[in-house]
Amino acid sequence: MKKMASEFKEFIARGNVMDLAVGVIIGGAFSAIVTSLVNDIIMPIISLITGGIDFTNWFISLDGTKYNTLAEAQAAGASVLAYGSFIQAVIYFLILAFVIFMLVKGVNKLTKIKKKEEKKKEEVPSKSSEEELLEKILVELKKKNK
Fold this sequence. Notes:
By secondary structure, the protein is mainly alpha-helical. The protein has helices spanning 2-13, 15-49, 70-75, 83-122, 129-145, and strands spanning 60-61, 80-81.
């Protein structure tokens, strides 16, 4: 049992686990932003374009009863296929996937730029034999003038 506890402690102490924890926390916060973007900005625009259609109230009541809103059907305990909510979730996913794609693309571009800069620093041009000879002559002249 002690061995398992020490292995678990070692596992938790690794950087990867901490990075994952930070990623999950930031992902949760990012999810709230994207949810607000979809619900408060994009869906109203889509609703305006489609003539005031509200996707959240697109549903089929499986008990055959007519309900005016999804909330009304759910309050009545009716089984429903809430395909409007599904459409909204798909839009949410596509926006989130696009934003992550752009973020990864930007990070990759920055990484490439950084690698190029580091490579340029490493590639200090070597001096030609003539330049080296001139430097030696200059050093000798400075010694003689002292």
